[in-house]
Structures are given as C-alpha cells and as structure tokens.
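Sequence decides. Consider this:

===
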Amino acid sequence: MAEAGAEEFAQFGAAALDAFQALFEETEHLDHRGNDAHARELLGDLLIDLMHYAQHRGLEFNDILAQAHGHHLSESNSPDVYAIGSTVQLDGPAADEAILLGHPTRGSVTGLLVPNDGPTEYYVHFLGQTHNQKVIAADLTPAPPFPATTTTQGLINDPLHAEELLIQTMRRIGQADIQGLRPHQDDLNDQRALLDALVAWNDMEKHNVTDLLLAEVAPHLSTDAQQPAPDKPLSPAQLAAQAFPTPLAEGLTDQLPAPQNTSEHRPATPAARRPGPGR
C-alpha cells in the first residue's frame, strides 16, 4: 500500500464499505458508490461501530482519528504537513538543546498526529534512537536531502535505509572480528561509505555517530564462536560484545589451582582474566 495513490486508497475504502454493507440485509438497497446520501449513511454507521470497537478495546478513538487525519493529509501531498518519509531538522531551542546534549538534530518523519485542538505533532526518527520522538510542528523545519550513497547493495538515498544497512554491516564486521576472520571487503567499503554519508548529513563527529549505533550492534555480537587467549588483548568488537566498559578495579586476576605436591613448592601464579559480560 505504500506505493499506492489517492485513487487506489479510495478504492480500498470503497471495498471496506462493500464488506460492511454486506453484513446487513436492510442496507442492500444502498448505493454508496453512486449516491452521496447513501455513502454518508454507511460511512456514519461504520464509524459508529468502529467507535464501539475502540471503546471495547480500551483505545482512544479521537487519537486514532487524529493520527488517521494526519496520514490522510500526508498521502494527499498536503502543503500543510510534512509527508511521511520526508527529512526534517529541529529548529530553535529544541535544536540548541539537542546540540548541547550531543544528539542528532536531523531525522525522518515516520508518522503524524493532527488533533482538533493544538499543534500538529510529528513522530521523527533520529539517528541511533530505538523509539521515534514526538516533536511539534513549530520545532521543525525541512532538512537537506540525504546524499545519494553508492554501496554494494545499490544506491541509498534515505537516512533510515542507510542507518539500517550500516548497522547490519557493522554487525557482520564485528562478528568476523570476534571469530578471528577478515571482514568481507564489500562490508568494509559499505561501512566507510554509509558512515561518511550519515556523518555528513547529520553534521556530527564520526565517533559520535559510531557511539550512537554501537547500542544496536553490540547486543547482536557473540563471543561463543572463538575466545582469545587469556593474555591476548581484546579487539574493539570483542569489547563491544562484552558490554564494556567494565571497571578495571573489579577483579582483574584470579588464582589458578594450587600445584600438586612436588619437590618444589612454588606459589600459584596469578593469571589475568577477562571481565565477564556486564549483563
């Protein structure tokens, strides 16, 4: 349905009314497709039943209706709202606060709410966030388009898609590193291209962008496949997989079992151990 137009969406609505009308014998004579009065009657009856359904489920119908109104305006290419999928950026005090906290100020609209009273609210995905952020219209302005980025998986011109692909690529590279394997060159090239594009578009430092994405990468890395020797330094991927940082003061050594009785009685030598997962 994402690629359908307004005409096709209207046909979906007509089909829904057809199905609703078929439930009641007393409405068989109504012609909602050709008679405006019949259409209003059926639409009203359907809305009433949907209100009852929302109430039965404990849902707030007016909120759902406001969100539906916003999506309708977006799909109708209304100049009064940002379309879903469009790029926006924080403006004014909201932008100043995000910059002060080191948070990204640019994102993509994923939904909107147009209430009867009050300002239009947008759900915006910002880099590295697991939940979309609710932002009022007054705090947003249009953002520059995301730079078209060439990867081995095609041309990427959407920040949401770029972020998703970069996370997947970082996971593969990290897993290869943990297993002592060389990452695939295509993954290394894609990581460089996507990271550069996201850094440039978000106008942030590269290490800040990487830090934001590590929260989505580290939980998916596993050290079960291959563990390094006790005296071998851990790689960055292994550190991420073990949910570092861990305070170094917390038990860096462990005692080996005492040797069996021999002619020479020497104390056991402390052996360094790796801090366990922080979870």
Observations:
- The chain is about 40% helix and 15% strand.
- The longest helix spans residues 36-57.
- Helices lie at 6-21, 36-57, 61-75, 93-101, 159-178, 185-202, 206-217, 236-241.
- Residues 225-230, 243-256, 262-279 have pLDDT under 50 and may be disordered.
